[in-house]
Structure formats: structure tokens, C-alpha cells
């Protein structure tokens, strides 16, 4: 049985862990479910005892980390623990959910690849605890900044768990225990860039997708973004603007923001994105970038501006007709010159 002292220790650990998730390393929220508590057992190299793993490594020297899993429910539970790599969700927050993730090209080390045990499954009896260990294998050379990931703890469904009305209750839940490592004390400042800007559609609405990337091995927290889009050469007429608050980004990751183009026609030509951003640590970014909308993009992505589409098609037909007439004229001239040479 779990002693009252041990239960209190675990609950305090979970409380500290929740505080850390909100302020130090933003992450996905745990879903409601059965009683499960997760507590880290800090290694000797731990830097900050704030509720998650954050420790210093030596090149190529493995470190073992352990977590205590407590089953606070009145029935046996099976848990799956899987190491993951941190990334930035489409909502603009640091997350650790496993699955196929389009990692940024600047990401050099993935936490999942550095942990020996890829997945562990344990069954814990009611009101008991179990300790699970993982081996972290740091890069063989010193690395800049931090490498961020997590131990993703997920419970299995209990199909036999029914309420008084014989309705199955879904008791599946997930918790994350962040794992962050570094080998140097030198501070690394984040670098925010815009790798690409492309038109798209959301339902029937024309949008502009702007990919934002954090190209450095460090987190961005408290990120605020303001941007506007206008046709190049006409900065006084704003076609779309956007404002986002309280975002966070994982090291070497990216996500997309969307600008609603509203009722404005997406005409072919060159446009300009003017973006301003800053984070809670005083970093500021000013990004100015042109992007081009082709005739094809305009036809595909316009928001029901059918008269513009009809005009574009008409212009395209006129261009094709002119090219055909020029071709015919040149062909006749060649035939005439050939006849004169005989």
C-alpha cells in the first residue's frame, strides 16, 4: 500500500510539475482520467529541481533517469511510457505527443533517438507504485543550447469500467514528464525566421500560410507576433493583418500562422509580409519578406471572386492567342523568305 507520506510526496511532485509546465517548459495539457501520479527522481547532475528533468551531460556518457509511477485508482492499471522529441504544435505551443512529426531541418539531435528504451509497458496494481528507468545517451561531442523531449505516459483503456447506467467510461489519459539536457553553460538566443509564405484555403476562405521557425537549440516563451500583408509598392493598403499572443516554440522547430484574406481578391503579383515579434526574455525580431502569387494560385485559392477568376482565364486565353498569332506570323515569314530564295 502507498503510505500517506509517499502519497503526499507524489502529489507535491505533481503540483510542482504542473507549475513547471505552465512557466518553465510549456507542454500539452493532461486529459481527465484515472488517478495516476508521476514523480521524477533527479540525477546528481540535475540543474533545477522544479518538477521535471533538466540535467547536464558529458560527451558520450550515458545517464540513467527514473520516474515513480503511482496508481491512485482502486483497480490495476497498465501504463505505456514512451520517449518523445519536443516540437511546436500548429497552435503555437511546445508539445511532446508521439507520432509522425515534420521536424525542422535545423534540428540536429532528437531526444527520442538519444534514449535507449523506445517504449515500456508496466502494469501497476491498485494503490501501488512502480519505478521505471530510461538511459539517456548524450551526443559524443559538446553541443550548443538544449535538447528537449519528454517521457510520455499513457494509460490503457478499461472497457470493463462502466457506470450505473451500464455506459462504458473512457479512462484513457496522458501525462508528460519533460526531459531537457545541455552540455554547456553558454547562453543561446533564439532566432525567429520565415522560411516560406504560401496561399491556401481554409474551407471557402482564402488564407496566407506563414511558416515561422525557431532555428536555434533553445525555447521561445511568451512569444507575441504582429504582422500585415500588402501588395508590394502599396504599403498604405493593408490586405490582411494578424496578432498572436502567448505562444511558445520548441528548440529547432516550426509551425504555421494563418492570415485571413477576407473579401480581398488574391490577384497575381508580388506581395509583402511585414512582421514584428518579441518574447518574454526581451528578444525582438523584425522580418520583411516578399512572396509571389502566381496566376495558378490566384485561380485555385481565390475566395469566390469568380469575376476575377473569369478575367484571369480570359487574360490567359488572350495571351495564348497572341502567342499563336506570333507563331503563325513567324512561320509565314519563314515560308516567304524560303520562296524568295528559290
TrEMBL record:
The chain crosses the membrane at residues 306-327. Keywords: Membrane, Signal, Transmembrane, Transmembrane helix. Residues 1-30 form the signal peptide. Residues 38-154 form the WxL Interacting Protein peptidoglycan binding domain. The keyword Transmembrane helix applies. The keyword Signal applies. InterPro entries: Ig-like_fold, WxLIP_HBD, WxLIP_PGBD. Residues 165-302 form the WxL Interacting Protein host binding domain. This is DUF916 and DUF3324 domain-containing protein. It comes from Fructilactobacillus hinvesii.
Amino acid at each position: 500500500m502507498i503510505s500517506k507520506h509517499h502519497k503526499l510526496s507524489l502529489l507535491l511532485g505533481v503540483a510542482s510539475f504542473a507549475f513547471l509546465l505552465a512557466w518553465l517548459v510549456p507542454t500539452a495539457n493532461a486529459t481527465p482520467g484515472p488517478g495516476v501520479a508521476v514523480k521524477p527522481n533527479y540525477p546528481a547532475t540535475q540543474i533545477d529541481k522544479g518538477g521535471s528533468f533538466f540535467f547536464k551531460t558529458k560527451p558520450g556518457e550515458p545517464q540513467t533517469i527514473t520516474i515513480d509511477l503511482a496508481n491512485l485508482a482502486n483497480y490495476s492499471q497498465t501504463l505505456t511510457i514512451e520517449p518523445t522529441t519536443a516540437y511546436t504544435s500548429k497552435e503555437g505551443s511546445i508539445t511532446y505527443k508521439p507520432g509522425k512529426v515534420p521536424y525542422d531541418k535545423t534540428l540536429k539531435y532528437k531526444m527520442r533517438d538519444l534514449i535507449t528504451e523506445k517504449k515500456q509497458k508496466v502494469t501497476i496494481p491498485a494503490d501501488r507504485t512502480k519505478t521505471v528507468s530510461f538511459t539517456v545517451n548524450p551526443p559524443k561531442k559538446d553541443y550548443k543550447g538544449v535538447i528537449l523531449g519528454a517521457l510520455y505516459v499513457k494509460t490503457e483503456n478499461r472497457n470493463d469500467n462502466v457506470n450505473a447506467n451500464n455506459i462504458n467510461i473512457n479512462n484513457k489519459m496522458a501525462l508528460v514528464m519533460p526531459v531537457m539536457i545541455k552540455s554547456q553553460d553558454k547562453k543561446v538566443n533564439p532566432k525567429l525566421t520565415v522560411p516560406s509564405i504560401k496561399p491556401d484555403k481554409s474551407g471557402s476562405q482564402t488564407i496566407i500560410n506563414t511558416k515561422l521557425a525557431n532555428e536555434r537549440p533553445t525555447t521561445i516563451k511568451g512569444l507575441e507576433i504582429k504582422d500585415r500583408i500588402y501588395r508590394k509598392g502599396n504599403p498604405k493598403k493593408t490586405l490582411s493583418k494578424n496578432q498572436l499572443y502567448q505562444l511558445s516554440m520548441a528548440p529547432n522547430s516550426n509551425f504555421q500562422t494563418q492570415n485571413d484574406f477576407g473579401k480581398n481578391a488574391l490577384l497575381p503579383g508580388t506581395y509583402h509580409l511585414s512582421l514584428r515579434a518579441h518574447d518574454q526574455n526581451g528578444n525582438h525580431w523584425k522580418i520583411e519578406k516578399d512572396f509571389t502569387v502566381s496566376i495558378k494560385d490566384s485561380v485555385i485559392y481565390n475566395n469566390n471572386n469568380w469575376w476575377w477568376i473569369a478575367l484571369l482565364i480570359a487574360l490567359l486565353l488572350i495571351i495564348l492567342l497572341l502567342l499563336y498569332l506570333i507563331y503563325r506570323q513567324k512561320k509565314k515569314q519563314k515560308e516567304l523568305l524560303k520562296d524568295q530564295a528559290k
